[in-house]
Amino acid sequence: MTLPSCAVIVVLLLPLMFTAACGGGAQPAATSDSITLYTCVSDTTIQPVIKQFEAAKPGRKVNLYRAPTGDLNARVAGDVRSGGLKADVIWACDPLTMADYVSQGLVGGWTPQTDIAQNLRTADSVGVAMLYMVAVSHEGGPTPQAWSDLTSKQYAGKVAVPDPKVAASALGALGFFAQSPNFKMDFYANLKKNGAVQVSTPDNVTTGVAEGVYQAGVTVANSAYTAQKKGSPIRVVWPQPGAIGIYGPAALAKNAANPATAKDFISYITSKEGQTVIGGAGSYPALADIKGPTKPAGAKVVSPDWSALATQKDTLLKDYQQIFGGS
Questions:
Q1: Fewest C-beta in 10 Å: which of 66, 138, 151, 304?
Q2: Which stretches does DSSP call E strand in the chain?
Q3: 107 and 138 inside one domain
């Protein structure tokens, strides 16, 4: 046998020799079972959730796109224009935004088994976390006891409100006020007439009030309590008739690339284990018996009829923009 022939045989045998040395039968290589998640949830909440999910489900990986609701909507619209949604799961921050995705045929058709209340669920999505819109005021000045107080003369030119085109929580609040017979869109018209200023996000409201730029504003409880704990000179009020409760739903993409892992992720974040992680990360869990951030004893919470508002998002925003401007 010539030397070249021997070399060929050795090369051909090497893979078999390596397999035998490693214990016989071929072993499949570990693969990453990944999904893409789109969300507007804060980074301080979503990162621990992803970390704990991946730890509980070895080999699974969550690729994250996180942005405010306005930017998230733009990302989804871009996906649609370029061939289809790139996410496997969308975790939104308000029911109206999710209803819009459902109406476009992008998500829905499945929800997990969970103890989360039926009023936080639809046939296409399930509530995962809560946001509470509250009032915040600068220490040393007047403190609003009711939402209507923000339209009074003592707050003239001194109130900040978040933009519902940018922040899901502000969109949810818009839905409540517009639907409530005691407020309607007149509430926003009166705010504007009284010199209220629109800023981008609830965090911008909290910061502006803490710095004394504004005397009061509308923000989310998480933002206000976090700032307060850091020493900001603010008061947090759950005004009458109540803080506005807005649930953030998650849904499976209709054309998810990896539906099995996507379902596992949604099942995890709606389980007691996942809800405990959410509460520990500083967000209000959707499961009522799971501990979360500060919520005053006896605090009242109000919400609109989300199903009645499901198809009215564009109309609500148009009516709001006629008052505060924008496009």
A1: 66
A2: 33-39, 60-66, 89-91, 126-138, 159-162, 197-199, 216-220, 234-237, 243-252, 284-285, 301-302
A3: no
Residue 55 forms part of a structural domain: yes
At position 45, the amino acid (one-letter code) is T
Pairing of strands 216-220, 126-138: antiparallel
138 and 236 share one domain: yes
Environment class of 22 (CB within 10 Å of its CB; exposed 0-12, middle 13-18, buried 19+): exposed
Do 165 and 110 share a structural domain? no
Whether 205 and 120 share a structural domain: no
φ and ψ at 73, to 5 degrees? Answer: -60, -40
Residue pLDDT tens, the chain, 327 long: 444 444 333 333 334 333 333 333 333 333 459 999 999 999 999 999 999 999 999 999 999 999 999 999 999 999 999 999 999 999 999 999 999 999 999 999 999 999 999 999 999 999 999 999 999 999 999 999 999 999 999 999 999 999 999 999 999 999 999 999 999 999 999 999 999 999 999 999 999 999 999 999 999 999 999 999 999 999 999 999 999 999 999 999 999 999 999 999 999 999 999 999 999 999 999 999 999 999 999 999 999 999 999 899 999 999 999 999 865
Q: Is the residue at 283 inside a domain? A: yes
Report d(CA 306, CA 274) in Å as an integer.
25
* Listed residue (93, 87, 82) closest to 41, CA to CA: 93
Q: Is 17 part of any domain? A: no
What is the model's pTM? Answer: 0.86
Which CATH number is 222's domain given? 3.40.190.10
